[in-house]
Amino acid sequence: MIRTIILFVIIFGLVVISHELGHFLIGRKNGIRVLEFAVGMGPTLFSFKKNGIKYSLKLLPIGGACMYDGEDGVEQTSGETTSASGSLDAEEDGPRGIAFTEANVWARMASVFAGPFFNFILAFMVAAVLTAITGADLPVIGNVAEGAAAAEAGLQKGDVIVKIGREPIHFFREVSMISFLNQGEPLEIVYEREGEGRRTTLLTPQYSEDDGRYYMGITDDGAFLKCNPLQVFQYGFYEVEYCVKLTFKSLTMLVRGRLTKDDVAGPVGIAQMVGESYDQAEENYGTPYAILTMLQIVVLLSVNLGIMNLLPLPALDGGRLVFMFVEVIRGKPVPPEKEGMVHFAGLVVLMALMLFIMYNDIMRLVR
């Protein structure tokens, strides 16, 4: 349990810090005054002030904040800050810069977008490290089950799948993901066969009553590409792309009602997943492989956080960007009090949803 908590705090903390660091660095670059940079939520455990900015560590390791002066009703100052004694001291009492609302719309948009963008940067950096160490699992067919959908479609051992529908395929994991999410729809498979070039076939997955899902009827052959320096960046990008596709496909299934509340996890569920993944990987393959598994989770969580924050929902970065796009079109900002009300309502809904998911995670854990 202790190890699970430590792993969760490290992984989730890294993802959250990268997100808030994006807001912090680009905001400061655009001259926007930052009041507080916080890691975690809830009561403050530790804090210090430097150049007028408060840096805080909070009790609950499930979020963070980069608080700009003048954003969402945060008390706005103008120019230098007046201390309790009445003297002006910008260096001690407040950082130099302008309030968020005083910055031009493009500076604000860049500062808000930077949080999710830094999540993608972190995901790519970690993915490149993983690729350099492990290589890339190639989409080479290792076995075709007799009488399975793949056999009927003419696929054979050694065929390399290069495309399914409109999606280019770079990893066998992508083939497995598409197979797992398929609901019986026919799949156009483009593959390469040694000595015969590229071919196309139509494959209709077969339903398994025992497992309650559809199967293509193929397994991989364990082929891995040992990447050169250029391929490390290439396949590192493909790794991030795979996580993006997985996140969007999961969101689509959730919206269509093909996922239940037990398929959605909050901080408690993620912590449980982290602990179980580490234990299983360590038991089967050893500690080095378990550490690599944790790095894979960092990539997936960082991409997931980046995408979720870009959704055009109130209180999220995407929702804030919507208001700024409206400002660009109208030529003037939406009244701050109206925008604040929308974001506050969205925050209430998000907090209620978070509490529900956390409760569901705990109930699932004690069953």
Characterization of the model:
The protein is of the alpha+beta class. Among the domains are: about 120-135 and about 230-365, no CATH class; about 140-225, Pdz3 Domain (Roll), CATH 2.30.42. The chain is about 50% helix and about 20% strand. The strands form five sheets. It has a four-stranded antiparallel beta sheet. Strands 1-2 form a two-stranded antiparallel sheet. The chain has a two-stranded antiparallel ribbon with strand order 3-12. The radius of gyration is 24 Å and the shape is globular. The two termini are about 15 Å apart.
List keywords for this structure.
10 helices, four-stranded antiparallel β-sheet, alpha+beta, 367 residues, globular, Pdz3 Domain
Shape: globular
What would you call the structural class?
Answer: alpha+beta
Average pLDDT, rounded to a whole number, is 87
Q: State the helical fraction.
A: 40-55%
How many beta-strand segments? 12
Itemize the secondary structure elements and their pairings.
Layout: H1 2-29, E1 34-50, E2 53-68, H2 90-93, H3 105-134, E3 136-137, E4 141-144, H4 149-152, E5 160-164, E6 167-168, H5 172-181, E7 187-193, E8 197-203, E9 206-208, E10 213-215, E11 218-220, E12 224-225, H6 229-255, H7 267-285, H8 287-310, H9 317-330, H10 336-366
Antiparallel strand pairs: 1-2, 3-12, 4-11, 5-6, 5-7, 7-8, 9-10
Helix pairs in contact: 1-3, 1-7, 1-8, 3-6, 3-8, 3-9, 6-8, 7-8, 7-10
